[in-house]
Amino acid sequence: METQLLKNTRPVQVGNVSIGGPGFCVIAGPCSIESEDQFRTTAKGVLAEGASLLRGGIWKLRTRADAFQGLGPESFGIIKNVLLETSAGLVSEITDPRQMDSLYPLVSMFQVGSRNMHNYELLKELGKQDKPVLLKRGFAALVDEWLKAAEYITKQGNDSVILCERGIRTFETATRNTLDLNAVAFVKERSPFPVIVDPSHGVGIRSLVAPLAFASAAVGADGVIVEVHPEPEKALSDGFQALTLNDFRQMMVQLKKILGALDRPLT
Ligand code: PEP
Ligand code: MN
Q1: Which residues face 21 on adjacent strands?
Q2: Is the beta carbon of 227 within 6 A of some atom in ligand 1?
Q3: How many whole angstroms from 124 Cα to the centroid of ligand 1?
Q4: Ligand 1 atom closest to Cα of 200?
Q5: What phi, psi does 11 have (nearest 5°)?
Q6: 3-state DSSP assignment of residue 118
Q7: Quick check: 255 and 214 in contact, CB under 8 A?
Q8: Residue 8 confidence class, pLDDT cut points 50, 70, 90
Q9: Whose CA is nearest to atom 10 of ligand 1?
């Protein structure tokens, strides 16, 4: 079944990876970059198993002001070393337009976090850049508001937008968020943007991340972004939802089988 969905999607080039074509992309790495060892071990581990891009937070928007806020500029040297060693591209969140100059040379794609989906000044600034933007859905945003937020970026001239469903806040509290796979199918059909899914924040429970990654592939997403940590119990943020390197390896074995059945390569 060659779906109409894939035909509507305009692929976006992220470093040397094309997202939104026939292939399924796996972006993986820690929630936050915490140390050179932690980032290097995670990066090498996930790339060896088939991830094609790395994730890693530099500035973290935390609910509690006294929680770990990310290493900030202290992580720049770590990132340069690890990217040089691995030749991989990085996706990382920009939380403030004043970070643009320092972040630009480090990333292959800017990430806009859920809390900033409505930050229109940030979106306009990203619209003036010549690098792709991963636009996460606000946790209380309608699909329509999410698509209108994407237009703030494209209107400035930057068409390289990838949407990311990361779970929404509903009446249900059993899981951290409710991963809205309806929205994934809907925006795949109704928008030109590639769509990826973040099952880590979407469900917030380590053991449920892989099943929701599989569901994302089945529903037609163009990829997933997942949190991985070599020692989740020591993570400074979101350890409860981080896959170990072993969990990630097992997820990739299954994911490759599912992609095979869907006749889609890993990209
Ligand atoms: C993240 O991916 O690092 C993150 C903070 O996610 P979200 O913005 O979706 O909460
Ligand atoms: Mn996180």
Answers
A1: none
A2: no
A3: 20
A4: 2
A5: -60, 150
A6: coil
A7: yes
A8: confident
A9: 114
3-state secondary structure (DSSP) of residue 215: helix
Q: Using CA atoms, how far apart are residues 35 and 40, in angstroms rounded to an integer?
A: 8
Q: Is there an atom of ligand 1 within 6 Å of 137 CB?
A: no
pLDDT in tens, 217-264: 999 999 999 999 999 999 999 999 999 999 999 999 999 999 999 999
Give the pLDDT confidence of 43-79 residue by residue, as tens digits: 999 999 999 999 999 999 999 999 999 999 999 999 9
Which ligand ends up closest to the CA of 196? 1
How far apart are the CA of 261 and the centre of ligand 1, in A? 30
Q: In this structure, what token pair is assigned to residue 252?
A: 């990739």
| Averaged pLDDT for residues 124-135 | 98
Instruction: Give the per-residue SS3 of 6-63.
Output: HHHCCCEEECCEEECCCCEEEEEECCECCCHHHHHHHHHHHHHCCCCEEECECCCCCC
In this structure, which residue's CA is closest to atom 8 in ligand 1?
A: 113
Tell me how crowded residue 207 is: count the other CB atoms within 10 A of its CB: 10
Query: Quick check: 2 pLDDT over 90?
Result: no
Q: Which atom of ligand 1 is nearest to the CA of 111?
A: 2
Using DSSP, state whether 5 is helix, strand or coil.
helix
Cα separation, 210 vs 208, whole angstroms: 6
Maximum pairwise Cα distance, the chain: 51
Please give the model's pTM, rounded to 2 decimal places: 0.97
- What ligand has the least distance to the C-alpha of 224? 1
- Name beta bridge partners: 161: 133
For ligand 1, whether the C-beta of 201 sits within 6 Å is yes
**Six token digits for residue 120:** 């229109």
- Residues 89-118 have pLDDT tens digits of 999 999 999 999 999 999 999 999 999 999
